[in-house]
Amino acid sequence: MAGGAVDQSLLDLLPQIHALFSDPLRVISYKWLSRNFSISSNDAKRLLQEFVNKHGTNLQVIYSVSGWLKNNPQNYCIKLISGTKLEEGRQGFKDSCSVQIYSIQACIPKDTAVLWNPEFVQAEELFNQPFDDENCLRDNRFCGVLNSSVKRTSNGKHVSSLPPKPLNSAAVVAQSKPSVTPKEQFVTAQQQDLPVSSKQGAGNKSEKDNSTVLDKAGSAPVVKEQSIDAHASKSKAQNGKAMPSNGGSLANMWGRASAKPKPPSTTNSTAVASVAATADAQICAKEEADGDSSDDEQGVKYKRGSTNANNKKRRAVFDFSDDEEDDNIISIASPELPKQHTPDPVIGTAEDAEVNQKNLENNDDVPNNEKGSSMGMDSDFTAECKIKTVNTMNHSGITLKEKSSDPPINDKKQDSAAEPASTSPKRRKVLKTRIDERGREVTEVVWEGEASADDKAEKNVNTTAATASGATLPSKPKPAANTDKSKAPSKAAAGNKKPAKAGTKQGSIMSFFKKV
Amino acid sequence: MLELRLVQGSLLKKVLEAIRELVTDANFDCSGTGFSLQAMDSSHVALVALLLRAEGFEHYRCDRNLSMGMNLNNMAKMLRCAGNDDIITIKADDGSDTVTFMFESPKQDKIADFEMKLMDIDSEHLGIPDSEYQAIVRMPSAEFMRICKDLSSIGDTVVISVTKEGVKFSTSGEIGSANIVCRQNQTIDKPEEATIIEMQEPVSLTFALRYMNSFTKASSLSEQVTISLSSELPVVVEYKIAEMGYIRFYLAPKIEEDEEMKA
Fold it and tell me: What is the CATH number of the domain that holds B61?
């Protein structure tokens, strides 16, 4: 699909891409490219294809393959597959699947977060631009899914968002329909964002990851759009105009969780935006996951203090995740720092056994990434985003929602059937929620040596979180989104509390004195 | 026949207030040597031992050893009816299932009798060996009460560490942590304000603050409290009762759990 005719003007960008590519740590995704050069994502994909055609020898390509799975024809699946496994991955799909370039990089990153982190940072930068600056994110010009009812605010005023593009409906329809059509590209592209996270691992494990990705992907497109909106809302928040009341005490008390919900509440459009933010949020979550979450809380508190004043909810979330390092905190405020952080972890991870991690990542990470990681991240906004995404999906009437919601589990199962990664004794990332000495619930993403036990733990965490999330985050519409957040789940906390407090045991006087 | 006349009746009132929170029912044992009580709290974590020696009573008559089971809350209710300056006389007949408290006003112009039903209590009497404690801290009881009260607002447990430098009470909780260090302080002119540490070797033990706070209800009985610590032994928090006896609280320490818990 990507290999269509490319304008000469676009071809002029190839040298620049080449220059960018010379940075060995850089992942050039079509999305990043699209935003960076303000070209449409389709053009960006074609550009990448051109680049691969010309310099394809010493670079790694990750394709997004979307279509209907053979073994699960009811789910429209979008997978990220590394170039070497492309054919293998495609065989899992029915005849007509769309293959597009997702990103090019010098090597397949071990940590899939690297794939989308640059995009996230980029999005941050774009949204941090002055309000009157029009950029591709703010005007949503490249978004494949548009919702006419979504309004965009600039300068604190609600402005009717971009006129809904015909693409929206088309995209929605496309997803619902089994056949892949060119229009779907938008959808797929959006979907890819989500899949990407899962696919990081997928590069290696394309098939499984893909399947999981698919489920997520279904939800993902919506998320992306929402995220964009969310960005808009974020920008509002930054201005200080956005829902100061929401930013009030509750938000502070609940931290991340509360902070996110607020933006959605303001307006439908904001809600949509928040949903869109999920992809970014996930990225953040991933980044955060690498760091200690325990520290996060402190950082969060501090940040909040500052953030509250500004009513910047999003930032507060980031701070939480990054709080371990002062630099991180700063970075949160300024988008650039995250970039630096992300590359490093990638390199380190890359060195680790890729194969093992791949399996692990595929099974565990995918869920973690989308749900667990974001949740674990403590980033409130992710949870909100997810919730919002669900809501937004309903609002927009996108059919994808159903698929997305169901698929994760099913896909996992199918994938796992093919590759029992979960059972394999490999290192994996596990979401761990515990109560620290201060009685706060801390969720961490930890590399675990034993797969099976960890998996169980993860499952428990997720389930508990999901169940608890409803109770804990009443304000948020959907428990699933809450599930992502590790903090929210009260049950998980309760479960964790016991071990945490178990450090000492009260002795009995009877063990010291004997009866007379 | 039992008849104990205690001029300083308020002592008995204070004793009851000090232990009734920890123990609800207990047997008072009367013998020729004195009036004593030993009881554990319901969770068998703490033990209270009370002794009022016969010499401390103006009149002490105990024909035969007698064990009287009483509900301490009910006993406290009755004792509250006594004025602080009243003389309290405890009377019981052999084989009777009641005990009588008689309150005489200082001027002898008012006499009140309160008869309380006794109860049968299966008490587990523990033999408490005399032990050498590794560290003995004597400090103002009000100070100790204040420390326990303050720390309990921060955390659930207190770590009492005795070193040459002094005694450190530390805790940590959700909101933060606290450390209170009391150094040796021998004030010659005010012995009741002295803090004296006798230490054979450093000790550090962890205790539940809930019980410690309960113990400090006895602070009104004595200006000074003595805390005896030894690893492997319950802490002893002792308040002297005038010249006639003591009330001792024993509290089992909290034990570090094995690695399994931490893992």
Answer: 3.70.10.10
